[in-house]
Design a protein that fits this description.
The chain is of the alpha/beta class. It has one domain: Spore Coat Polysaccharide Biosynthesis Protein SpsA, Chain A. It is 34% helix and 22% strand. It is built from 11 helices and 13 strands. The strands form 3 sheets. Strands 5-4-1-6-11-8-12-10-9 form a 9-stranded mixed sheet. Strands 2-3 form a two-stranded antiparallel ribbon. Strands 7-13 form a two-stranded antiparallel ribbon. Strand 2 and strand 3 form a beta hairpin. Helix 8 crosses helix 9. Bound molecules: 1-O-phosphono-alpha-D-glucopyranose. The site of 1-O-phosphono-alpha-D-glucopyranose has 14 residues, from strand 11.
């Protein structure tokens, strides 16, 4: 039975320690690392808001206070900018606190992505909801989340996002076994496996960090044993739902062909910063010729 309740809630797991970016993340959450001039997390919250999800729950942990501060007002800074007549910076400062209604819950004992999503159970209640992972940035010009919401509203169950990757890279992702759905531009997920060895991968379709989930996922997560890396994996819960029948079961996928940037490790983070900076109206014209010259000298 398709689930038709309107989707308004987004869950953003942000409890990770960010060890890959030490020492930058010793005293600062990795979600606050700037991508050009906005913290990575702001792109994700803005993406949720654009898809109509203005009720955001962040799953945080110790040393994540900067996240709450960033999405809050800073009256004295606003007053200084206002007195100077600096409208542009004032708007930039205010933007992050106008993106929606942001709530926080702490995951005090992080046990993996599935466990982080389970921390959202009380806040979400019995409605379908989205999950956005902060390491994946989706270009604001390319639609993904709204398309996934449309599919969830049409077919019910849960919807994931997949992207074709080089088969050698599949072991860094969840990987899906899918079949076509006649006459539709989405696919049905037959099975999922978290970070398989390339020779065991069912395809080269990698799970990327956007999910629209049926609340049935919570009961499944509660029963899901630790999997890869000893962590409770969202992929494993979705594998269960893909093979189940009845209310809330079934998993479909949208295959994304747009622009995705990864801020999860140093090299891909640097690529994301450069790619987004050259696209910017205020920076691109100056940066592009310099980059060409720089690259020619390598
Ligand atoms: C998580 C998921 C994985 C997914 C990936 C997308 O892994 O467990 O299935 O492919 O996000 O970015 P992580 O990158 O957190 O290890």
């Amino acid at each position: 039975m398709p689930q038709t309740a309107r989707i308004t809630k987004a869950v953003i797991p942000a409890a990770g320690l960010g060890t890959r970016f030490l020492p930058a993340t010793k005293a600062m959450p990795k979600e606050m690392l700037p991508v050009v001039d906005e913290p990575a997390i702001q792109y994700v919250v803005a993406e949720a808001a654009k898809a109509g999800l203005d009720n955001v729950l962040m799953i945080t942990g110790r040393s994540k206070r900067a996240l709450e501060d960033h999405f809050d007002r800073v009256p004295h800074l606003e007053a200084v900018l206002e007195a100077k007549g600096d409208e542009r910076r004032l708007a930039a400062v205010q933007e992050s606190n106008n993106l929606g209604d942001i709530h926080y819950v702490r995951q005090s004992d992080p046990q993996g992505l599935g466990h982080a999503v389970l921390c959202a159970k009380r806040h979400v209640g019995n409605e379908p909801f989205a999950v956005l992972l902060g390491d994946d940035l989706i270009d604001a010009r390319d639609e993904l989340l709204s398309e996934m919401i449309r599919v969830q509203q049409a077919v019910g169950g849960s919807v994931i996002a997949l992207m074709e990757v080089d088969p050698a890279q599949v072991s860094a992702y969840g990987c899906a076994d899918v079949e076509a759905v006649e006459g539709e531009d989405f696919v049905r997920v037959r099975g999922l496996v978290e970070k398989p060895a390339p020779e065991d991968a069912p395809s080269n379709l990698a799970v990327i960090g956007r999910y629209v989930l049926h609340p049935a996922v919570f009961d499944v997560l509660e029963r899901t044993a630790p999997g890869r890396g000893g962590e409770i994996q969202l992929t494993d819960a979705l594998e269960t739902l893909a093979g189940a029948e009845g209310e809330g079961s079934g998993v479909h996928a949208v295959v994304f062909r747009g622009r995705r940037y990864d801020t999860g490790d140093k090299v891909s983070y640097l690529k994301a910063v450069v790619s987004l900076a050259v696209e910017r109206e205020d920076l691109g014209d100056e940066l592009r010729p310099w980059l060409k010259e720089f690259a020619a000298g390598l």
